[in-house]
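Example record used in the benchmark description.
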Amino acid sequence: MTREFSRRAVLGGLAATGLAPAAFAQSDLAPQTSLRPALRGGDLLKTYQAPLSELIAEAGLPGRISVQVADVKTGLVLESHNPLRGLPPASVAKAVTACYALDVLGPGYHFKTRLLAAGPITDGRLDGDLVLVGGGDPVLDTDAVADLARRLREDVGLTEVTGRFLVWDGALPSLNGIDAEQPYQVGYNPGISGLNLNFNRVHFEWIRNGSDYAVSMDARSGSLRPEVKAARMRIEPRRYPVYTYDDGGDHDNWTVARGALGDRGARWLPVRKPARYAAEVFQVLARSNGIVLKAPELIDTLPGGTREVVVHESAPLRIILRDMLSYSTNITAECIGLTATTQRVGPVTALKDSADAMNIWAKERLGMSSVALEDHSGLGDDSRMSARDMVKALITARNSMGLKPLLKTHPIRTETRQIIEDPLISVHAKTGTLNFVSGLGGFIDLPDGTELAFAFFSADLPRRDALSREQRESPPGGKSYAIRSRKLQQRLLARWGVLYNG
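Model output (structure tokens):
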């Protein structure tokens, strides 16, 4: 695509939004002489861009908005709207967490899940305890656990364990969830520990069988479906609430309303006891390899006199971060943030303590002045960040931490959903969405080589605060607010793509 064609593609898209003048298509036919110098097409288009304040007013978003855009090379602020107002960043906070992890842990860091033998192995028999040791890996899945069990049999030759099956998850604090205000059943708010599995979610499936239902709870992967007892489901004769949760001591106790079930269905539910869940799955998969283990026992301290027999390493951190920023997985952000804090300042017992440590780091390393995050994922709505702080962080991270290549590429869409395609214009950004909260922060590359950093946060906090716990999964008006906010974001990106090119 040539430069000229690219500009026409942009203009075509902007014309659909009403931002380009109707007569612009005839601008190439202007007289060759004039009393004043004729504007070039791109310059003329710039004169028809609506002011930032007008675009925000037209969007009619209730609540507050904070916006800023700056030149990455010079740091010059090009325009802003309430840039100092702190608002919930939602998942845009994950970009800061990614920088924190890159700086403290390094892009090549690997999480390790280990099997230790507390005793000699002779002729396939371990005379002692087998210890499953979590290393805080947020992306450990059932296939990886199956590989650990397979290697224990095939590579180590283990067939029998005379001692106990011990489990240690102390690499990270054991937490019941990320945000206590979320609905019980949402899979994006699971428990956290040093030993996690399948993003700490369990697969609940139901199928009508006559007048009753067949129910399963399993730790499925692409090829395996081991059923578990660490999470249990009971169907109750009611219509509301749809789900309830109770702590069953050594398992998660769930109930579901019969009136909410159709003929069949499935969903992922959060796991509140991740170490027990992962240990049970390993025990089942070890048995499938001929290794019978006793019931798992959680321990607070690693025993001495052990040796490593099998280890699973995660993908390097940069790959995990790329996926986290693309799919916005909350548990990944929390485990990575907690791991970075543990390495930087030592163990913590609460998520907010780790977030406070990251806030201090962000002020020192990213130049943020008023950042106040309460977690590493942005799930908690008490977190606050301003557009100015986010733009500062992006510019610093762009130059020193390699954040930009990890961010997802986003198209610029017009209000008619036409994509503005130009190989020389690209947007790399992190989105953020909560009920009545929306954010976007990242970079824009323009055809003339200009690179911009921008941040956008909007929030209707009174409306969000009025929601009950159950309403937070799918509140009335939540979807329409998100759509309106994203439309405004797209109009701003289109505006900046024209206004600051050339």
